[in-house]
Design brief:
Layout: H1 9-13, H2 15-29, H3 59-73, E1 81-84, E2 87-91, H4 96-111, E3 116-118
Antiparallel strand pairs: 1-2, 1-3
Length: 119
């Protein structure tokens, strides 16, 4: 399907390529894509701290972590990274978010360190 809209190779299999292909197919059949926020709001996390000890928000550090996460995202392997403090600990790969969370859970037990998630 991706080739039919001119996407090939990495572009055809990237998240963006899949999204473009899905959007075109949806448009052609008259479907209107909706997000989870439109039908299952109770599945989404609310604003604010979700778990762990309170952490002081330091804009410079947050900016640095977001920059690292965005640079990692450019690899098109995944959009999420996990940090221990300011040190990158793990990144999402072809195994997806579930595999990342499992790896981090195992690492956290071994290393006994707090972690923060960025996306």
């Amino acid at each position: 399907m991706a080739a039919s809209i001119g996407l090939h190779g990495k572009d055809a299999t990237s998240d963006f390529g899949v999204e473009q292909t899905f959007g075109l197919v949806a448009e052609k059949i008259g479907a209107v894509p909706i997000g989870v926020h439109q039908f299952a709001k109770d599945l989404l996390a609310g604003e604010g701290q979700l778990f762990g000890p309170p952490v002081d928000f330091i804009p410079e550090i947050a900016s640095s972590l977001l920059k690292a996460t965005r640079q990692f995202g450019e690899t098109d392997l995944g959009q999420a990274m996990v940090f221990a403090g300011q040190q990158p600990l793990a990144g999402e790969d072809i195994g997806g978010t579930d595999a990342l969370l499992k790896r981090v859970s195992e690492l956290q037990k071994v290393l006994d360190i707090p972690v923060a998630f960025g996306w």
